Amino acid sequence: MKTSSRVFVRRPRGVYIATGVGAVVVVLIAVGLFLPLTGFLAATTASTAGLVPFPVLSVTGVTLLGIVLVAGALLLALTRRRPAAAGVWSVLAVLIALAVTVFPLVAVAVGSADRTADIGPIIGDLWGRLSGLLPS
Known about the structure:
It is a single chain. The protein has helices at 13-47, 56-78, 83-131. It is mainly alpha-helical. It has a domain at 55-111. Helix 1 (13-47) packs antiparallel against helix 2 (56-78) and helix 1 (13-47) packs parallel to helix 3 (83-131). It is rod-shaped. The model has no long low-confidence stretch (mean pLDDT 87).
C-alpha cells in the first residue's frame, strides 16, 4: 500500500533572498514614499478648500489593484525555481509599487491643470469688473 506524502521542492537560497529583498523594498516604498505623498496631497486638498483636487476613488482603486499585482508578483517570485526568475518577478513588484506611488501625484497634477483652465476665464472676468472695463 502506497502512502501519500508531500514532495517539497527545495529551492535555492537565492530565490528566498530575491523575494525577501523585493518585499522589503516594496514595504519601504509604501511606508517611505506612498503614504507620505498621499497624506501631503490630501492635506493640500483640504487646506486649499478643494481648489487642488484629490481623486480619492481613482487613487484608492489604483492602490488596491497595485496591492494585488505586487502580492502576485512576489508570490510568483517565491514559487520560481531559479534565482534569476525570482529576481525578475521581484523587480517587477518594485516597479509596480513605484508606479502606484507616482499615480496620485500625476492624478492631482492633471486635475489641477484642468482646474487652471477653468480658473482663467473667472480671473479675466474679475479683472474686467475691478478695472471697470466690463459692466457688472
